[in-house]
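[User]
If only I could read backbone structure tokens as easily as an amino acid sequence. I have put the entry right below:
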Amino acid sequence: MNDDVLSTSPAPTSDVHVIGGGLGGLAAAALIARAGRTVTVHEARGRLGGRGTTDRRDGFRLNQGPHAFYRAGEANRVLRSLGIAPSGQAPDLRGAMMADGDRIGLSPGGPVSLLRSPILGRRDKFELARVLTRISRIDPAGLASVSAREWVEQVSSRDRVREILHTVIRLATYTNLPDVLSAEVAVMQVQLALGKGVIYLDRGWEQLVEALGQLPGVRYERNDNVGEMPDVPCVIVATGSPRPAANLLGVQFDVGPCAEVSVLDVGLAQRPRHGFVLGIDPPMYLSNHGFPDGMTPQGASLVSVAEYLSADNEPDRNRLETFLAHAGIDAGAIVTERYLHRMPAVSAIATAEAGGLRGRPQSAASDRPGVFVVGDWVGSRGHLLDAVLASAEDAALGAISYLERRPAMR
């Protein structure tokens, strides 16, 4: 097939046509195929996966920015319903915390390191321990219309504790917009992180792309750029961010701002001094992504450093390199590297102003019967990949139900 082909009206050979071959589109298609319906996925690029793709460079596997898979999240539930059990390893969060420019102390990731960290005073240590203990008992839905900043200011009056809470929220949400982000999302993600935690996936996120892409019953059209809504019975729009979906549908979605990050991945010939460094200021973190199976050549390591961008913070590679140096990364040990100047971490965040998760657009297009949307900005469940796959499930179930009712509507 010609790489430049523009498909405006795919032949209606399938019950459902999915526009977009990222993880959301793949999951929706797999769920529809499992229900016995025919489905075609149209992907504009030559490979499937979207932001879930994994690049290979000099023997290293590089995800599209640092990714963590939440064990207790919606994504794990949806994948397991399809017979997919993601494999990976939990990161060691006993690392360091950077504050006041370059002051390094033990990261307060657990009771022992919390009490030993020189970044925290005695009162701060007890206050932070109290807040983290209480978080598990909070109902996030009750904070839907409260901003993350407002919530942090409510739970503690101590400046350093507030700074660390904002740091933990950035880490769990990939978002540096505390005045806008709903505290429902912030607390929900921190609960997931402090509960069953996360894993980094073996072979990177291509593991999920391959597993979903190999499920039976789905037809794939790669290099197929669908420029307008096809004239078919049922369509799922899984194009990633709201803008391309809005262009296809000819509507405007009322969504929150995009959360962006700047990332520098470095392949190392040796293990890093710290496997995890969390920045209070600047708003960055470094993590070792090379320990899961298949991520690096033997004996090598892979480290990602990311800066959470805010509305008034332009990307700057020099800041990432400075953070690497403060974290003890020797430039002479770098084997390969990749810089992602600016990339979306969340296409559109759930805002306090819109009422949190319930304020996001729903999967079923209200004025377009048989049309559904998928994305990390869609539906009232989950954040990041959890929102993607939860909305994929909603779209698939909606499409199946619509097709079951459709004969009676003729």
